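Quick start: read one record
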Amino acid sequence: PPRFDEHATFSSNYELRIYTSDCYYLDENNNWKLDGLLFEPLTNRYQTQCLSIHLTTLDVGSSSVKAGS
């Protein structure tokens, strides 16, 4: 890599966000579970697509966290 003899300063104005999403179902003991649920390829930061191998009611949880918060 090139070497610099002078001190360099870099600054940038940006915001980093972390997006998470999960699929859940409520089991017979009222516990949220995610086994048997899969994410589909269309899952992104705007939508969550879930696939279930069992017949249960699903819920989708998502969150957006500003990095450094």
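The mean pLDDT is 80.
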